[in-house]
């Protein structure tokens, strides 16, 4: 019986790398599934990720390529989410330290250097950062994950099925909202609300400082700075 060539055997066992196009499709799948107003907050982790997998594998941009498995998509998203969250902090630090005369490229270079120094690896997901950085759904998830110190990484068991992993915020479903209004808030809920309020206030103060610095600049603002200024002003109105 003929055996396949060694090169063929090794290629089948080789871990398939994710391309920039695949990353963007996966991000789109996560964002669109998270924003699904019909399913919303009632999604369990199993069905949630099955929907993402279906969305991803059915993309017309991937015609002719081998389908991804559920575990591959979950692992890739976890890595994207983790590294992009870390880079957001590095970019904000670079932006705060931006001096007069520095342009967008200078800020990006500084952010990449900060990331490299902090985590001892190069940041290679700039395309993912650009897809996520201004998306309200992801931003709310990032802020929630960053502000609440109780980082539960294990899925909660609900009726024998996994609920969506903590840190992956979802839209509030109608049923869940009504049920929440009817029951009394526990001490835990009140504590989380206080923490959330404090962090919101800190976030507003930080944005106000950035806005004041941008408004005080005498040099013409770059395209990125103008976009950031308009974004902050719209949020503060």
User: Would you tell me the structural class of the helices and strands?
Assistant: mainly alpha
Unreliable runs, pLDDT <50, ≥5 residues?
6-13, 148-172
What is the strand content? Answer: under 5%
Spatial order of the strands forming the largest sheet: 1-2
The tally of helices reads 10
Overall body shape: globular
Count all strands and give the number: 2
How many structural domains in the coordinates? 2
Main sheet specs: 2 strands, antiparallel
Distance between the termini: 74 Å
Radius of gyration: 21 Å
Helix content: 55-70%
Q: pLDDT average, as an integer? A: 76
> What is the H-and-E element order?
HHHHHHHEEHHH
Protein name: Myb-like domain-containing protein
Organism: Brassica carinata
InterPro entries: SANT/Myb
Domain Myb-like: 10-81
Features:
two-stranded antiparallel sheet; 2 domains; 237 residues; 64% helix; mainly alpha; globular
Describe the structure.
The model is unreliable at 6-13 and 148-172 (pLDDT under 50). The chain has a two-stranded antiparallel sheet. It has helices at 6-13, 20-34, 45-57, 70-96, 104-119, 126-132, 136-147, 174-182, 187-216, 223-236, and strands spanning 157-158, 161-162. The longest helix has 30 residues, at 187-216. It folds into 2 domains: 18-134, no CATH class; 187-237, no CATH class. The N and C termini lie far apart (74 Å). The chain has 10 helices and 2 strands; from the N terminus they run αααααααββααα. It is 64% helix and 2% strand. Helix 2 crosses helix 3, helix 2 runs parallel beside helix 6 and helix 9 (187-216) packs across helix 10 (223-236). It is mostly helical. This is Myb-like domain-containing protein. Residues 10-81 form the Myb-like domain.
